[in-house]
Structures are given as structure tokens and as C-alpha cells.
Amino acid sequence: MFLKLDSMGQDYIIRLTAKRKFLYHNKWVFATELRNRRKGKVKLPLFYKGKIHDAYLSHVKVQITASRKDIYLVLVYGITEHQIL
Known about the structure:
The chain is an alpha+beta fold. The protein is 15% helix and 42% strand. The protein has two helices and five strands. The protein has a three-stranded antiparallel β-sheet, with no helix packed on it.
């Protein structure tokens, strides 16, 4: 599916699972490990489930197994007790 979307020049967003691996600095790393290494650097108000939260965002350039195309993993902190991938 990723290869098809890339060939069409289509942008996309996917929701991750804990077992997803990314190529980061030439090493395969689980999404949860990358999440735990990062901290939110950009602060913004975000409306989530009827409330405004101070959310923090961070991003990291990675590659996925299917296409090996550079993509940005966006991490959101501060909305729930766990970071959102």
C-alpha cells in the first residue's frame, strides 16, 4: 500500500502500532523506543475530546520497511497520559 501511494505522489497519514519498526540512523528501531527518546519541542493548544490541552509536538525523519522513502514521524505529547504516535 505504501509503495502504491508513493507512486501516485499521494500524501498519507497512518496510525501506528507498538510493533512498527523504523529505520533511524541506519538501525531498525521500534516506534515506542523512538517515542520514549523524544520530547515535545513545539507547544500549541489542541482541542481534544471537548477540552483544550497544551500539546507538545516533536518529529523525527525515519524510513519504513516498505518504501525506504524518508517520512516524518510526528509525536504528540500532553493530551493523554501516554504519548501519541
